[in-house]
Every structure is written in structure tokens, then in C-alpha cells.
Amino acid sequence: MNIQEIIKTLSDKEKHELFQYLKNENSQIPRIEQVCNDVSKEQVVNCPHCDNSDIYGHGIYKGRKRYKCKNCGKTFNDLTGTAISGIKKVDKFHEYLQLTIESLTIRKAAELLDLNVKTIFDWRHKLLSSLLLVNGQVFSGIVECDDKQLDINEKGRRNLDRDAYKRPSDRKKKRGVSNDKVSIMVATDRKENPTMKIAKIGRVDEESIEKTIGGLVDKKNILCSDSHPSIIAWAGTKKLEHHTFVATRQHVKDKCYHVQHVNSLDSLYERWVSRFNGISTKYLPQYLNWFVFLRKIKGTINPLMDFARVISSNIGTLKTFRGIEDEYLKLIIPQISKT
User: Fold this and answer.
1) What's the distance, CA 192 to chain centroid?
2) Closest to 76 (Cα-Cα) out of 42, 50, 43, 41
3) Is 3 exposed, middle or buried (0-12, 13-18, 19+ CB in 10 A)?
4) CA distances to 35, 184, 310 from 313, in Å
5) CB of 313 within 8 A of CB of 39?
6) Are residues 151 and 265 in the same domain?
7) How far is CA 316 from the centre of its chain?
8) Are residues 179 and 312 located together in one domain of the fold?
9) Taking the model in full, what pTM does it have?
């Protein structure tokens, strides 16, 4: 029988198991522990608890070298603080790296790996928290930016001060920008270096624009955007060369100034995120990190290795993961106080 015919008879789960077996046989799935060892040789090891560099060797535990911090007195290894710290089912965690790159839903991944949905949920947000530093790198050349509004989504929250919506149509939406929406700043340069960050609840202003993309641009950049008054005022404060566009009147200036890249980025995000059937605003920053990272590794030789290196080098991942609720409250409380 033809191999292709045999494969067609397999279930999705069996196909996934076969795929993982072949990848393991060809050593294509990176071992996080080995990647960590390689990363440790390339960068200075700091204490994940207090970020102090004054450390010394403190023996070996479970095959990994341990360190002790002279500042806080705590011990750690090169995995402490990363997404893999404390993971029990390491082999399946390695497999989940590939499923994250494939943007599988939590339930589908749990089914393929034969794991509890809660386990996959925690793994997802630990991994996405490790991508925080990827979402926000200095731009070069021409920069396009735009503000995007999304409805505030309280999916999964149990302490609502209202009745839960049984369907999306139950929500009474306000047209345009309002305090029922969260604004996202979207920006990219011409070298496929995108950034998507939550600015604030309601309409963006100069302060929120500066907070999200202010540190990524300088006077050497040329800014292109729509004619949003806050973006115009912010660009004037930064003394940037700024070209504005009104979609119904003009699309391109001097054959090179336009906002087509950032508009395309908006459309790509909408298509990508639709598979998750709604994202809680609480976890929206993690999904923005995820999408930006996928755009950056698009076309790279070994995206799985790129992913492994990022998550093994970010010792602040668990701190970010544990602070998700606090960051959400910082965002939402000013909005609650106005209503």
C-alpha cells in the first residue's frame, strides 16, 4: 500500500503522533535544556529574583548547575524564571512549542497531546509572556502607525457586575470610539518589524501613544498615519517628519509614503485571531505578543529554534505571567471609575 494512502487512514491525533515521531528522529524539535545551555554561554547570567549580576556557583541539582545571589541570597539555575521552570511533562511541552507556532486552539492542542485544557492554558500564557520583549523593537526608516479599537471582552471572568452575555448580540455596542473599547497602537516599519500594544481604554491621546511606541522612534524616522489629531500632536512634539492620509482622498504620496503596510497588518491580525472565538481583554497583550512574534519569524529557516531561544533566554517570564491580573486591573480600573 502507498504510504500516502496509509497516512490518509490515520486520525488527526495519530497523524500528529507520527509527525512528532519523525521530527524527533530527525532531531528537529529543539531540547529546551540544551538551548538554555547554549544561551547561557552567550549572555551574562543574572539573578531572576532581583536581577543582580553578583552571583556565584552553588553546586549542581538534578543535573543542572545552580547559582546563588549575593544580593538576595536566593538560589536558582538557568531555567529559573523562564517559561519552562517547574514544567513536569517536558517532552509534551516541547511538542507544544510547535503547536503554538501553528496557532492551534487550546482545546485542539489538549486533544492532540492528551492533556488537560487547564495545563495547556497555563503553558500557552507562560510561553506568550516570554514574548513580551519581542513586541517592541526600535524602528528604522519609514514607520506607519494606526490606532485600532476592540470591544472590552471579559470572557472567563466570574465576578462580573452585570449579567453575562449569552451571545455577542446581547451586548449593546456604541458606535465609534468609546470607553467600552480598548485602543491598540499598531505600528511597523518597512523591514517587517511590527509592534502592537494596548494604549488605553477609550480614545488614544499623546500620553498613551508615547507610552506604547514613543521609545521606538526618533527624529531619523519618517512617520505615516491617518489624520488622527492625537497622532498629529504627538508627532509634532517628537519633531518627526509626518505624512497623514485620509482614505477617501489619498492613498500614496511621492510613490513611497502610505499606510498600506499597517493596514495590511490590521487585516492579518483580524483573520488570525478569529480562530480563537473571542479573546479576553485580560489576556489580549499576550495574544498581541504572539501575533507579532509569528510575523517576525515568518520565513526564517528554523522558527522552532528561534522560539526555543526566546523562551529560554527570558528569565522574567514567570514574573510577567503572575502579573497578568495586576496589569489588567491597571488598565481597567480608570475606566470603571468613569462609569
Assistant:
1) 16
2) 50
3) exposed
4) 9, 27, 5
5) yes
6) yes
7) 14
8) no
9) 0.84
> When comparing pLDDT for 200 and 65, which is higher?
200
pLDDT at 166: 63
Q: Are residues 335 and 270 in the same domain?
A: no
Region for 98 from its dihedrals, namely left if φ exceeds 0, alpha if ψ lies in -120 to 50, beta otherwise = alpha
Instruction: Return the pLDDT at 73.
Output: 85
Measured distance CA(330)–CA(281) in Å, rounded: 12
Q: Is the pLDDT of residue 28 over 60?
A: no
CA distance linking residue 114 with residue 97, whole number of Å: 15
Count structural domains, the chain.
Answer: 3
Position 339 confidence tier, pLDDT thresholds 50, 70, 90: very low
pLDDT of residue 125: 95
In the predicted structure, residue 192 carries a pLDDT above the cut 90: no
My answer on whether 258 and 329 are in the same domain is: no
Q: Which domain holds residue 254?
A: 138-157+173-283
pLDDT of 328 higher than 70: yes
Give Rg (Cα) of the chain: 22
Is the Cβ–Cβ distance between 134 and 294 less than 8 Å?
Answer: no
Q: Are 285 and 200 in contact (CB under 8 A)?
A: no
152 and 259 fall within a common domain:
yes
Residue 143: pLDDT above 60?
yes
Q: Are 270 and 322 part of one and the same domain?
A: no
Cβ contact 203:230 at 8 Å: yes
Question: Same structural domain for residues 274 and 339?
Answer: no
In terms of domains, do 108 and 195 share one?
A: no
